[in-house]
Amino acid sequence: MDRVQKQKLKKFIRELESIRGRHTELVSVYVPAGYELIKIIQHLQQEQSTASNIKDSKTRKHVIDSLDRAIVHLRLYKKTPDHGLAVFAGDASDKDNKTDIQVWSIEPPEPIKVRLYRCDQTFMLDILRDMFADREVYGLIVIDNREGNIGLLKGNTITQIYKADSDVPGKTTKGGQCLVFGSSVELEDGKSIKIEDLKVGDNVKSYNFKEKKFIYSEVLDKWIRDKKEIFIIKTEKNKVECSKDHLFFLENGKTKAAEELTKNDILLDNNAKPIKIKNIKRINKKVDMIDISVKNRNFIANCVIVHNSQQRYARIRAWAAHDFYKKIAAVVNKQFLEMKEELKGIIIGGPGPTKETFFDGAYLNNELKKKVIGLKDIGDTGESGLHELVEKSADLLAQESITKEKELLNRFFTMLAKEPEKTAYGKKEVENALMKGSVDTLLLSEDLEDDYIDNITTKAEKFGTKVELVSMETKEGVQLKGLGGIGAILRFAVY
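Request: output the structure for the sequence above.
Response:
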């Protein structure tokens, strides 16, 4: 069904929706494609006999007269139309003292598959409504480590159904593996310095675990972070006051965060010798701490070998990203599995490699994973990212109306800029070109009045002009509205 057919069907439905019967007196008849009309007529004649038993005289007369009008109308057809026929009859008058029995019919743009007769207070229109409902649906996922967006593409409409911001730290944000002000750090000259007095470029004492010897390593970065609690790790020699995520090296070379340590763990001192933990204390207190990054990834703090921020921070980002992908996938799996049968495909987009990580990981349900038809690199997230994803997926959505509509309108606007003599816009100019047989393609905004659309479409058909109804769901459609809601691509220039 093209957009013009859809518009006519919508107008037909709107007209019948406005009619209400006093009682169950409005007649709806659906004749399926290929069904014999004579059988429908015979059925309606039987219903006329049954209607004679209706107690209310006015209702009885309306039903019998409506059935009679429907039968007369059906007899005008020699055979059932290819797509079947829908016939409606009833009193269209809105005045109690006046009767106006009318009959309406439509040969629908899609085949009718059911045989139906109903007499009710309203016409039965659901079968026709279902014809212009968009059945093909595409799932849209836009994701990066900042934000995730889930949407649907139905016909020309892009709808965001879920949005989530992530807790993944940005790449340029510093980590949180910190020590309190006043913590002592050993330098290459054998002296110690307070961590807050360190400068980028200073060399600190560091341990090479591979060669099992001490070396001196450059401080690459330094920053301050605010923390809400302090962990105090007391050893036989000293104590280290730090954030909960600060990593300590164990005697086996592995690492543990302060919050994971127990008194049974054995740390390494400033000579790389085992040292026991005597006590671990946690204090809830808001305090600023210092964090540093060291080239060799460890240094000596208060006579204990500790890890610097870099590697731990990368793991924090990875964990946070993993949790975020799981969160997005949970919503996708729930929403998209419920519409699995109507879901034609899924497209995933986003800046950078995140979309590949999300798709390749074990996040999406396997049934949904099979429906992924493409991954697209886009520069944005949010609702604008969903729209960009559709635009970048023209190759995947080549048969979808939104893409064809955008291509047609972009062609019109390009010609308007480069070949203005081959275009027209505004009612007066377009109608003038149309009556001269110059219009190849007529572009009409759905925002125009129905009667105007019907009248100009009828004129266009006489000249073999293609008619395209343009939605208001795209920026191009809004642009056309700004030109009066009507435009034309011409066969030849009109002067």
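The domain at 401-490 is CATH 3.30.1330.30 (60s Ribosomal Protein L30; Chain: A;).
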